[in-house]
Amino acid sequence: MKNLRLKAARAGKDLSQQNLADIVGVSRQTIAAVEKGDYNPTINLCIAICKALDKTLDELFWEE
Amino acid sequence: MLFNRIMVIVLTALGATFFAKIIAKDFEASGDGYDERQKMHRDKGYKYGFYTLLLLIVIGWFNAEDLSTLLSISMAAFILISGGLFATILYWIWKDAYFLPKKQHLLWGVLNFLSMSLLQVANLYRTYQYWMEFGQGQSFWEFSESSLTSVLLLFYFLMFTFCLLFKSGIENWRKKE
Asked: Which of B81, B84, B98, B149 could potentially form a cystine with B93 if both were Cys, beta carbons 3.0 to 4.6 Å apart?
């Protein structure tokens, strides 16, 4: 399932996938895969993304 | 007999791969390695390479008699091992796990594979000239078995180049979307 909240949060910070990938220390394709729902990131990567985007884990990754 | 010898060579290659993987793990642990998704796909790449190797062994096993007239032991072993490596690298490229996250130098990757392809073309051309001069009464493949290796390597390197360029094309298309 696509992670549209992550995409929106990234766009809200005016960051490209490459910018976010550089901050988090992964490849651009990994960020793209997480946004598309093709890859389930580990908790470490989730936390790194949340810190980079000033969001909580619930806000970006929790699904009801 | 043929496949016993091949198995020895294959097992030696697997041993070498195992040590190479340990060294690679140390390198990755130093912090200058692939990200977690890439590591997952690189591990899958090793797995698919191994399955390809097994598949080629099984195919070779059932056609051992025919193949023994066509190929020498070293050539058959080379095809088995290089086939496995080919599948592994192709999978890495396809899943964006070939380049390091901070070193995605497509141009250098393409130039690297293209230069290796050209080296094989030069080798084939040189062999062809020798064959024209000294290979009376022999077919080209009988005259030089190494030419088959060159053709195989040429195919591999061109496929890697094509795959890198194709992936890059898809990337650019997605960026424009």
From this structure: B98
For B87-133, the pLDDT digits (tens) are 999 999 999 888 888 777 788 888 989 999 999 999 899 888 888 88
- Angle of helix B73-94 relative to helix B146-176, nearest 10 degrees, comes to 10
Q: Which residues of A touch B41 (CB under 8 A)?
A: none
In angstroms, the CA B128 to CA B131 distance is 5
Q: How much is the average pLDDT of A8-12?
A: 92
ipTM reported for the complex, 2 dp: 0.87
d(CA B109, CA B98): 10
For residue B37, the distance in angstroms to the closest alpha carbon of chain A comes to: 6
Integer Cα distance of B79 and B56 in angstroms: 9
Contact A30 B104 (CB under 8 A): no
pLDDT of residue B74: 81
A23 contact B CB<8A: no
Query: Could you tell me which chain A residue has the CA closest to the CA of B38?
Result: A30
Lowest mean pLDDT among A21-25, B5-9, B112-116, B171-175: B5-9
